[in-house]
């Protein structure tokens, strides 16, 4: 894939991160500090199940694009690093 297409996909991932429900889910995940698999299971069955699944599936989808060559790995690393640091 060319640099233009890579950049376009990165911008689309950025747009998904800016969505209000995704922001709420991400903010909740920053407060989640599981110490056992039981903690994770309780979340999966509780009120924050949607938040947990939304953030995990977002990063799963994004990483799958890299692993399968849809996005350049180095460009994605920069995006992921900046996203985490800036938390936008």
Question: Can you give keywords for this protein?
Answer:
mainly alpha; 88 residues; 5 helices
Q: How many DSSP H or I helices?
A: 5
Number of strands: 0
The ordered string of helix (H) and strand (E) elements is: HHHHH
Q: What structural class do the secondary elements suggest?
A: mainly alpha
Question: Which regions contain 5 or more consecutive residues with pLDDT less than 50?
Answer: none
Percentage beta strand: under 5%
Query: What's the Cα radius of gyration?
Result: 14 Å
| Terminal Cα span | 26 Å
Assign a percent range to the helix content: over 70%
Description of the structure:
Helices cover 78% and strands 0% of the residues. The chain has 88 residues and is an all-alpha fold. The protein has one domain (3-86). Helix 1 (3-18) packs parallel to helix 5 and helix 2 (20-31) packs across helix 4 (49-67). The model has no long low-confidence stretch (mean pLDDT 85).
Please render the helix and strand layout as text.
Blueprint: H1 3-18, H2 20-31, H3 37-44, H4 49-67, H5 73-86
Helix pairs in contact: 1-5, 2-4
